[in-house]
Amino acid sequence: MNYTISQAAQKTNLSIHTIRYYDKEGLLPFVYRENGTRVFHEQDIDWLDLLCCLKNTGMPIKDIRTLIQHCMDNDAVLEKGVAILVRHRHNVEAQLKEMQRSLDTIDYKIKHLPQMFREKFSSEASESHNE
Amino acid sequence: MNYTISQAAQKTNLSIHTIRYYDKEGLLPFVYRENGTRVFHEQDIDWLDLLCCLKNTGMPIKDIRTLIQHCMDNDAVLEKGVAILVRHRHNVEAQLKEMQRSLDTIDYKIKHLPQMFREKFSSEASESHNE
DNA sequence: TGTTGACATAGAGTCCACTCTAGCGTTTAT
DNA sequence: ATAAACGCTAGAGTGGACTCTATGTCAACA
């Protein structure tokens, strides 16, 4: 099944502009052209999906480019690509834990915010605060 | 206990530049000055910690400013601040789930990447691919 | 007293990831 | 055959969050 750029955009929830931008940045070096027009295959959509995951989990575009370039070279170097992915996977796990901690902090602060700010703005505004 | 800007930077893992930038952006309107020099109290460090959590979980600076402004007004409006925080909390939960899904996708792709790219670059490079 | 070091401001510059515009070509429907 | 719809490129512009530079003040020390 083949798709135009606008269909690919729909399927991936990216904008047409963004897909072209990614192509320009070397993230889609494998996309075929017919008379200059991009033709997206199912596998290209798969790659765009992975790309979105990587982007959404904070991988910078230049790292994604490195990954795809490794993948395109040959099987030996593709292993490097897998390695990048595995490393990023650990990264994402760390982010998850970090975000969980942030959530806990936010919960804690929600409870203590009123008190925290009453102390800051009610008492300290009126009383002398010796340093 | 009071801190200079450089001590506050150390405690929060922000740079001095960044703290001053946050102040300029109206995120630290409550920080005292002595002869122009910022003096950070324990509570200010608490607020900087929360600020980092919010920033790390994707809250834009203008929203953080709105929050702090609500908190500074009075108790009624402080409730608005709490509401913002609660809303953001749900936001972060959604992000957590999204990131978990991304992690699953990445795991799946790690398994299937070699196959996916062999199909793309080995077969299609040599055979005619009818559209 | 003069140098060092920490503080300050204003504002310019950087980096990233888009996002948009202008201008052009091709296919499709009336 | 002309206009609408969609595709293309090059390149300018945007927005967010820093990051850095130039310049200046002030306090403490040799």
Automatic annotation (TrEMBL), chains A, B:
The yes or no answer to whether the keyword Kinase is present is: no
Every copy of the HTH merR-type domain together lies at 2-70
* Keyword field: DNA-binding
Q: Which SMART domains match?
A: HTH_MERR
Q: Mind telling me which Pfam families this protein's record contains? A: MerR_1
Q: Which PANTHER family match?
A: REDOX-CYCLING DRUG-SENSING TRANSCRIPTIONAL ACTIVATOR SOXR (PTHR30204), TRANSCRIPTIONAL REGULATOR, MERR FAMILY (PTHR30204:SF83)
Q: By what name is this protein known?
A: MerR family transcriptional regulator
Species for this entry: Paenibacillus paeoniae
